C-alpha cells in the first residue's frame, strides 16, 4: 500500500501483534484538533456477530485507558501541510495520553479526512468449485473483480464486499457453506491521494511510532454516529470537521460511498474573523458562545462584546448584535450544506429506501444547524453523538470525537479484514492469478 509496508496485510499483522500485546493507540489527525485514545484489549475480542459481518462486533473487547487532545498544527483541509508542526502536535497528544494511561504505546491506528476520496463499485463472478461455497471461492470471487484504472498517484484505502449473490439469490452477507453454482459479489473500493497517506505514515514514523492501520474519518464517523438500524436501512453521516466535511453513505451495515467537502467549521470562523476584524482566536470564542444560523426577533437586541487587546480602546470596546453574527455565519454554513447536497445527489442517495441524515463532528454543534440542514438536505435529519465505549472520558463523548470513537471500533474489528483469505494459486488460470495476486498485494 505504501513504501513502508509491502501490503496492507503486513499492516494488519502489526495490528494483530499490537492487540496481542494488549495496547494500541488511536490517532485522529484533524484540521482543528489531534485526538489520541489509548485502548487496552482484554483478550475477549469478538470476530463478527451472528450474521457474519457486524461492524460493531468487537466493541466489548477493549476499554479506553488514556485520552488526550491538542490543538492541531500543520494540517489544512484534513491533509498535512507542515510536517514538523504536525509531528510536534502528534507527539504532544500521544505523550499526554500515554501519561494518563501510564503505559508506553508503540503502535497507532490513524484516520484522516480530506485527500480527495473517490468511491468505486466493482463486481466479480465465478463458478463455485464443488457443491457449496468455501473460503477459496470467496477469495476467487473477490480477486475476480475488475479494478478500474484509478491512477498511479492514488492508493486504495478501503476495499469491502458489500453484497454477495449465489445463483439468483442476492443480498447475502456471508455465503460460506451455502449450496449453489455461481457466486458473484459487489465491492466498494475507496481510493485517496497517495501523497496524503504517505505523509501521514512518514509523520507517524518520525514520532517513533509504528503505523498499524489507517482509515478514512468519514467511515469512522459513520460507524460510531449511526445506530445499527440506520446502518442497516441506509443513512448518510455528515461529519462537520474543522477543515473538511466528510460525507459517508451506509447500507446493509457497509459503507457504499464516501466523499469530502473541503470546507468546515474553520471557514465559518475565518468569515467571522474577517467580518468583525478580530483575531481567529476571538472569532472562535464568539462563534462558540454566541453563534447560530437561525435569527429570531430577540437577536437584534442581544449585543455581544467583541473584546480584544489591540490597545485601541474604541476598537476593543465594540459590540455587535447576535443577528449580525448570524448574518455572517449562515451563508457559509448554507454553502457547505449545498456542497454536501451535491455530493449526496452524485452518489444517488435519493434512491435509497431510507434517507436518514445524521450530522456529527465538532462544527455540527452550531445551534439551529439541524433545522437548516433539514431544509437543504431533506426532512430526516438528526444530530448524532458517538456511541459510548468502555472507559471513554466524559470530555471525549461529544460529536467532535465521532471519528476517534469510530476508529476504536474499526481497530477492534476492521471489516476489510473479515474476508482476508489466501488466494488458491493452483486453481486459478495464469492471467486471473496475476491480476488477483497483484490486486491483493497492493490493496489488501
TrEMBL record:
SMART domains: FtsA. Signal peptide: none annotated. It comes from the Bacteria. The keyword Nucleotide-binding does not apply. One of its GO terms (cellular component) is cytoplasmic side of plasma membrane. It is found in: Cell membrane. Residues 24-225 form the SHS2 domain. GO terms for biological process: FtsZ-dependent cytokinesis. The keyword RNA-binding does not apply. It is a peripheral membrane protein. Its main location: membrane. InterPro entries: ATPase_NBD (IPR043129), Cell_div_FtsA (IPR020823), FtsA/MreB (IPR050696), SHS2_FtsA (IPR003494). Belongs to the FtsA/MreB family. Self-interacts. Interacts with FtsZ. This is Cell division protein FtsA. It comes from Roseivivax halodurans JCM 10272.
